Structure formats: C-alpha cells, structure tokens
Amino acid sequence: MSPSPLIVRTVPTLRRAVDNLRKRKATIALVPTMGALHDGHVSLVRLAKRRASRVVVSIFVNPTQFAPTEDFGAYPRTWKADIAKLAAEDVDVVWHPDVKAMYPDGFATRIVPDGPALAGLEDRFRPHFFGGVATVVGKLFTQCRADFAIFGEKDFQQLRVVTQMARDLDLGVKVVGSRTVRERDGLAMSSRNVYLSPEERQTATVLYRAMKASARRIKAGDAIAPAMAGGAEMIKAAGFVLDYFEVRHAETLAEITSRKDGPLRILVAAKLGNTRLIDNIAV
Length: 283
What we know:
9 strands; Pantoate--beta-alanine Ligase, Chain: A,domain 2; 2 domains; 10 helices; Rossmann fold; three-stranded antiparallel sheet; alpha/beta
C-alpha cells in the first residue's frame, strides 16, 4: 500500500515542506486541481512525475471563479477518494488550504489578465472567471515555488491564460499542457460529468463528434464557415444550448478565416440540461 501524501493546510507549513524538498535538490511539479479527481487528473499527476522528482497537488475549490448563479456550493467534493487516488500515485504533498488561508481578512489584490483571457470565448459568458483563475493560480505558483505546473488541455483557454501570466509576470514556472483524457466514447473527462443524467450522458458525446466532423471538413479543404456551421447544427439538433463553437488560432486564440492563418483549435461550450460542458480539439 502506498504511503499517504503529506497534507498541508497553511502557508507556513507549505513553505517548510517545499524548503525540505529543495534541500534535497528536488525539482517540483505542481498539479492545481479543485478536487473531485478522475482519470484525467491522474494523467496530469503522471506527467508531473515524468517532469520532476517531486509532485505537489493542490486541492482548492476557488470561490472567486464562480459567479453567484454558478455551482460553487454544489461543486463535487470527494476528499477521501481524492487522497486515495493521490496516494496510489505516490504524490509527495497535497496543498489543501481553506478559503481563509487563501484569501485572509483584508485580502485586496487581484490579477486581471488580458490577451487570451479576452478572446471572446469563455470570457464572453463568464466575465468574472479568468480574473478568479489568474489570481488563485498566481498565488499557487508563488506558494508552491514549483519548476513546472501541469494543466489539462480540456480547459484550453485557461491553459493559454495561465501560460501567458506565468511568462508575463516572470513567475519562474514552466506551464505544461497535457492532452485531454476521454471516455471510450469520446466524452472529455470532467468533474461536472457527474451532473449528467444517463440520457444526457449518452447525448454528450455529440460534442466530440461534431468537433471531429468539422475538423475533417476543414482538413479536406472546405471553407471555415460552412465546416463550422455543420458541426454547430449537430450540437443544437442533439438538444444542447450552444454558447460557442469556434475555430481559433491555437496559440493566441485570435479569430481566423482560413487554414493558412496558423495552427487551429476548435473550441466548444454548450449546456445540456443543467450541465455546461466545454471541450476542444486540434485541427
């Protein structure tokens, strides 16, 4: 049986744990999470272990990235199962602060990201979101002082935002993207998948199929607009309420008009019943 990771809940305790790792000449990889861990998170931990000699996983459900109408209180919390998964992967440290530790009384500083955070994708529907993400991730980077930080590509705009932030603010951490882990039928693994009813779970695979269909048409030389319109119709016909279904430049998230505009990424966000799902693929 694997030993349990060291669980730390205060910044001074975390500092001591990181200092002890550094004294042993360790390299450190951080995997930021909000818990409710699934095989996608496990894949991030495994990539972290390939990148560094020691792994820190943070578990913190960040209230500042939830709007008042969103599901902060209902967000799944599975602490015992999470720790069992991390122990099985030989994680070294779990950073599990409470809200008071992360945002103490008098906290008054926020990071307000620009660039990919204002691409007109997630930010158009959740304008509060990336300010909350950038602030908490900036704190995690400085608290854990990691050499690497591992993020999943499923939240692709988020990956671009934190990559830009780490570079712009000279935070000394290399952000590494990890491919999206999918169920056998193509649905991207997500903590929010538990909200889907059995019928919705079957329907949810349409997102991946629609992206693949549009990507095939673009690769075959079809014009961008009709190729994307076909995928959007598939999604809406399945019963989704579509927020966006767009192809963007894969690095800058800028709008594009043809395949020649650079590496391309298709990104989608849509609501099925009460569950909002996001996904993306490379073209």
